[in-house]
Amino acid sequence: MTEFIKSEIRPVFKATTFQHTSKSNNKKRAWKSLKQIISTERSLQWPENYVHYSSINAPPSFKPAEKFSDLSGLPAPYTDPQTRLRFANKEEYGTLIGLPMDITAGYLALRGASSIVG
Amino acid sequence: MEVLQFQDPKPVPDLIHCHGVDQHNAAIIIDNGSYQCRVGWLNQKEPLLTFRNVIAKPRKERSKKDIPESSVMPQLQVGNDITNIEAVRFQLKTQFDKNVVTHFEAQEHLFDYTFTHLGIDTEKCVTHPVVITEPFLNPNSSRQLMSELLFECYGVPSVAYGIDGVYSYHFAQPKSEDNGLIISLGYHTIHVIPVLNNKTSFVNTRRINTGGSHIISFLHRILQLKYPAHANAITLSRAEELLHTICAVAVDYKEELNRWTAPDYYEQNIKRIQLPYSTVTVTTLTVEQQKERKRELAKRLAEINARKREERLAEDEEKLNNLIAIQEMLEIDEDSDEIDQLLVDNQIRNVEDLHKNITALNVKIEKTKEKIATASNEDIVVDDIPIKQSKPNKMVFENEKAMHIYIQNAKKMRQEILNKKTARKQRRQDMAKRRTAAGQERMRIISQLARKEKGNDDFGLRDEDWDIYKTISREGGDSDSDTENEKLLELEELIRTHEPSEIDDTLKPGESHQLHIGIERYRAPELIFKPYMMGSPEAGLIEVIGYVLSLFSPEEQLLLAGNVVLTGGLANLPGLKERIETDLVSIRPFRSYSKVSVIASPSLAAWYGTRKWARSSEFKRSLVTRAQYNEYGSEYFKVHIASNMYVPTPKGHAMDVCD
């Protein structure tokens, strides 16, 4: 498909024979994702002083995460045991119990708390 | 209260610029960001092109798979060609994976777009040096492929690489200091880069993998969840617009939240934003108008009938005249061939038949005439009928109070029915899903019913046994019955007649299509400081700044904290500088000096900086020429003040880019 489009509007300034080296062997092969690139990079024997992409990731947070209401964003002292949503006051609880499952699941997923283990 | 409107800005397709004589061999400056790409000439002060680094690749339709590809194939859309980004949202592709370019076929399309719009028309080469920005610690393989693309495909004479944030620090400020802490806020990542004696400290730099795109999608999602009915109208581009227009960073987030709990503050500071809506005109017809319409229809029908009758009358009269003429001819002269012929034409067998026909026709005409007469009288009657069925009469009450009580009662009953309906609806929804309590209870009962117990199965002996089927039916035993619906209508009618404002006009047009955005304005940008709000385990910006500072000696810390510079598009957020200032004070030793500044025009600073660098003497020395590319390999580049460090990929374990 891309070949087709290219052949139609190939700009004049481009070399006619260029092929991406990583594509030339096998057309079907997708590009390496950043994850793959990083893992290849990490596996190599680098000189002592070298810093690579994955070594500058931010450290994990050492502060306890504050709890905020999923619905309003207000500080949330309570958690609903059924839906596991956090809420700030009884009005919010009133709306919370009326929420359909997909919405509650959406809130949990947004907070990254949708896994069964966590 | 002011209601804001979505602007839904549409990108304007870029012009294809002319390739002027003054650009002769001038360098092309490309700030290749994961959000936008800015491109311009060395000898022009402003970037010529600014576009989203995206392409929309139309997919081949499955049904048309067998048909050979023809010219109807939709074109690839690039950057600003995409006028409606929401329409092609699912076909969007970018060359970026996070902040690193990985997909070089997409990059090729974007370079095609770039160079075409710059007006380059030289045969099989781009005769300009290219300066292009790259991410902090760009993996060698990515740079290698970039060089390969630029040299082999576009035939550029020379290339230089640098880091966007570092370029803006050193070259986009009127006077850059030797020491500083760069906070580069990007679309996918935030970098905290310490610079000491004009040297970038790579080891102590940290990257937070949260950026503008996360804020946008977070805002998008919380609004969708808050307004599920408008989930489709709340698009990512609109969330982006909100981030650009009304979002801000709270200087003290806790306190900001506290303020919002007060209803007055909420009312005063809430932003109302109108989603597009179309008024439904059909339902606005009043009862009167509907009746009027009905009357008109009846009238028209009557007219049509009358016309038909008249036509029939005229026809019959003509026929009668004919027959009478034949009769007269018969009286004059019997048995002529002419008369026989006439009789055959009128389908009459004999003279008796003729007489019979004449009398029949006479009766028919008489009847039609009668009908016409009655119909014209009816016209008046038709007008009267609908009036009879107008509104139910207003009930007469002894006093105001009695009426009030009566209406309250009616309202209560109405509410009860509505409650029942919603409860039923909720139940139905719960039943349909598996993991709800109601659904599980249902499954339990079903499995109990299915259990075979030989001998002592007495199910059905009592009539109540059968009720169990009611509880497990999805409808929950009782559905919205017609009588209930009728009752509801009746009650609503009643309330309407006595208190017309109660049900009608509760909403102004479009009010249900308004988004109320309060805390969300601060909640979404707060992600920069609290990535855990979207489940990321990484530390927030202030914590990372503190961590990076802790890697230096106290003297160095003082130098860095004394010159914190914010750059990148997110630095435009109101309040960000103040927030970092106050938080920085809280993590620094008592009374130690710290200063935070935002670079001028943070989104374009990287481009300006890159351009300024390219005008310096260092630029010429930092270019990798085609010859050097051929000699040192594709990952070779020259180190300069704003570049990454060059460490060739270890030999022996040479990275194989093919797999």
Automatic annotation (TrEMBL), chain A:
Lineage, uppermost ranks: Eukaryota, Metazoa, Ecdysozoa, Arthropoda, Hexapoda
Entry's Gene Ontology BP terms: chromatin remodeling
Vps72/YL1 C-terminal domain sequence ranges: 67-96
Organism: Photinus pyralis
SMART domains: YL1_C
The keyword Transcription is annotated on this UniProt entry: yes
Keywords for this protein: Nucleus, Transcription, Transcription regulation
Official protein name in the record: Vps72/YL1 C-terminal domain-containing protein
InterPro entries for the chain: INO80C/Ies6, Vps72/YL1_C
TrEMBL record, chain B:
InterPro entries: Actin, ATPase_NBD
Coiled-coil parts of chain: 287-326, 351-378
Entry keyword annotation includes Coiled coil: yes
Family: Belongs to the actin family.
SUPFAM superfamilies: Actin-like ATPase domain
Official protein name in the record: Uncharacterized protein
One biological process term in Gene Ontology: regulation of macromolecule metabolic process
Annotated CDD domains: ASKHA_NBD_Arp5
Source taxonomy: Eukaryota, Metazoa, Ecdysozoa, Arthropoda, Hexapoda
Keywords: Coiled coil
Keyword Nucleotide-binding among UniProt keywords: no
